[in-house]
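Entry 14. Ran structure prediction on the chain below.
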Amino acid sequence: MPNVPINRDDENSSRIDDGKTPDAPSIYESLPSVPTAIRAGDVVSSVLEDIPSNFGPYTLLEQIGRGGMGSVFRARHSETGQIFALKVLRRGIFASRRDIQRFEKESRIHAQILSPFVARHVAFDEHQRVHYIVSEYVEGVDLQLLCARISQLEPRCALLIIRDVLEALAAIHKQGIVHRDVKPGNVMVLGIRKLEVAKFRLEDFQQAKLMDFGIARQIDQTESLSMTHAEMTLGTPLYMAPEQREHSRSVTAAADVYSAGATLYQLLAGFPPFQSKDNQLLAEMHRVQRPQRLTWIDKRIGEAVNQVVMKALEKEPSLRYADGGEMLHDIEQLLAGQPTSLRAWPAIPESEPDAVKVYSFTWSLNASSTALWPFVADTDRFNRAMKLPAPQYSFEDVDGKNTLRASARFNGMNVRWREKPFQWVVGRELSVLREFESGPFEWVTSTISLEPLHNDRTRLIHEFKIKPRGWLGRLITFFQFGFVIRKQIDRVYRRIESLSSQTNNPFACDASFSPPQALNRNQLENLDRISAKIRRSYNNPELLDRLVDFLKFSGDQSVARMRPIALAKKFGCEPDSLIALCLSGTDGGLLRLMWDIICPVCRIATTTTDSLKNITRHARCEFCNLDFKTNFASSVELIFRVHPEIRDIDTRTYCIGGPVHSPHVLAQNLLPAGQQVEFGVALLDGLYQIRSPQLDEPIRLETDANCDDQRLRVEFPNRVRELLPIAERWVSVQLHNQSDVALTTRFERLGRHHDAVTAAQACAHPLFKRYFPDEVLSAGDLTSVQSLLLVAFRMINFDALV
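Output, C-alpha cells:
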C-alpha cells in the first residue's frame, strides 16, 4: 500500500524555475570555466592580471578556473614534464599585503594535510612578484558539473562520493583545521572526461578528492594568525552551516559536517536542501527550517540514509556529528549494509517489509513547534477528539514485568492490546507502539514529528505503520487509515492550528480539540444563580467572571482537573486569590474538591479521591511498579472539578502515559537490550537526572555556564555517582543499553514543584478550615516532616529590655 499524504506543504516552491542550482561562489574559490588553451609565448589576459605562459619552471597549458584571488592553471614542469595545478595570486597593485598573507596561509594549511583524498600540496613560490601555489593536478570533473549534467545520482554512488569527501575531512579535522567551504564545486571526481559526464554510472566511479583551502583555518589559531575580519561571512550560502554566517572565525568541524550533509542531500535529491533567490531568506531557512525528507523524494533512499543526512543537517552544532570521522563511520556502515549509530525511532517488531502498511500525513501549520507541542503532547485529549473509544486499562504481570494492557470495542470488534511506554523528545517527536492480541491489526505505531519551517511555521508529520492481521485486517487498514482516520486527523490538526495561534486567548490550550458543546438552559441558570451567590461574598468579581468563562468554554479534561496555582498563572493573578475563589466556589456549589495522590518518581496521579479520609498510608504507582508512602506534604495535591450541576463532563481516560502527564520529563525512550538512542535537549540553569525505573541509581547532572561539554554519553548500567557538569545550552545525549533487558529511560528536570497545592498547605488555609472542618488534618493523620528548621537564640541583657 503506498503512502497516502495529504496537504503536502510546498515550502520548496522557492526553488529556481529552471531546476538548476544557481552559482553561489565563495569569496576565494576557483570557479570552473571552459578550458582555454595557451600557446607558447602567449599571454593570459584578464581584468586583474597579465601572466605569461612561461611562468618560472612551469609552462601554463590552460586556464581551468578563476576566482576573486586569482586564477588556476594546468601547467607542465619544464624539466620533469609532470603536470601540476598552479593557483596564481593576482598580481601588481591588486595583490595587497593581506592578500599575500592569506594566500601563504592557505598554502601552509594545505601542506599540513596528507591524505589521498585531498589534492597533494607541492610548493609555494613566487615568480616576478607573483605568488603561486603548486599542487597535484587532478584529472576529472568537479561535482558541481556532474550534478548539473546528472541531477540525481544513484544512492550508492552518492554515498561513495561523500565517503571520500569525509575521508578528506577526517584527515583535516585531525589536524585541527576547518575547511569552511565544502560544496560540490570543491570536490573533484576522478577519471571522468567532461564530454562523458552525462553517461556517468556507479561502475565508472574511481575516487573523489576535496579541493580548495582558500578559506580553511586552524581551529585554535591565535588572533595574530587570523587573516579574516570578524564581520566577513566566508563560505557558500547554499551549503553553509547556520552558525558560519554569523561566526565564521569560530566555527568548528561541525560546520564542515553540515556542508557535507548539504552536499550529500543534493546528490541524493537532485537539488540542495534549501533554495531561494533571496540570500536573507536562504540564510533564514538554513537557520530554522528542516529540509524535506529524502524518503519522500526518492523511494530508493532508505530511512537509515535519511537519518544520517538529517543528523548532519541539524541546526545546533552539538546535535550533528562531531567531525568528519564520526559521520564517515555511519556512511561506511550504510555502504556495508550494517546498522548505523542512529536507531530507527520507534523500533518496530521484525516483519517483512511488504507486510507493513505505511500512511504518512503531512501539514504545514501556521504555528511554531513550541506552540503546537502542548496540544500534540496531550494524547488523551487528542484521542477523545478523534472519537476513539475509551479503553479499559489494567496492569498485569507478564514474565515478571508489570505490563499495561488495554481493551476496547472498535468497529464492532473487541480489541485487546499491550501498550508500550510512550517515547518522546519535547518539542520534536512523539510515538507509541501498540501490540494487539486480538482484532484486525497485529501492531500499530503512531509517530508525530514537528519540523520547524521559516516564518514560525511547522511541518507536522503524523505517520502510522500497521501490520494487518489477515485479509480482513488488510481491508480494514485500507479504509480505516486511508479514509476515516485521514479525515478525522485533518479536522483535529486544523483545530489545533487555530487554537495554538490564539495568543490572546488564555483558554486556548484548554479548549477542546473538537467544537465545544454549549451548556443547556438548566446548566446556564444554575451557573448564573451560583455565581451570583458567590459574588455577594467575594470581593473580586472580575476574577470570578474569568473562572466562569473557563468553566463554560474549556475542554472536559481541563475542567476535570484544575490545579489552582497553574490556573492562577494562566489568569495572571495571585495564587492566594484563586485558591480563595476556588474554595469559595466549592462551598457555593460551583466546583468540587478532589485530591490527587502523586507518584514521587513519575509525578503522575496514581489515584484521585474526594476526601482525605479515603487516603491510606501506602499507595502504588503501576507505571513505575513502585509502592510508596503517602505524604500529605508532598504526594497529596489539591485539585478542583466543575460541579456536575454546572456541566456534564466526560471523565473517562482515552489515553494514559503521554508527555502531558510528565511535563518535567524532557525525553523518554524505550531502549531495547544492546541498542542506543540519541537525542538533543535544550538545558536551562538547574539540576537534571537520567534514570530508568528498572535500575536503582539515577545519573545526576548540573548545568554550568562555564562548561563547554555539549555531548553526553551514558551506558546502562552506570556506576557514576558524582554530580556531572553539563553545558547550559543545547546538549546531545546518547544512551547505550548494555544490559540484557529493555529499559525505559527518562531525562528529567529536577527541582521543587511550585505549581501544586499540597494537602498540608490546603489544610492550613483559613478558608479551608472554615468550609471543610471534617477534612482538616488531626494529630494522627498521615503527614511527615521532610525538612526541619531549628532556631536557637539567647536573650542578652534581659533586665534592660524589660
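Confidence is low (pLDDT under 50) at residues 1-49, 221-232. Will compare against last week's run tomorrow.
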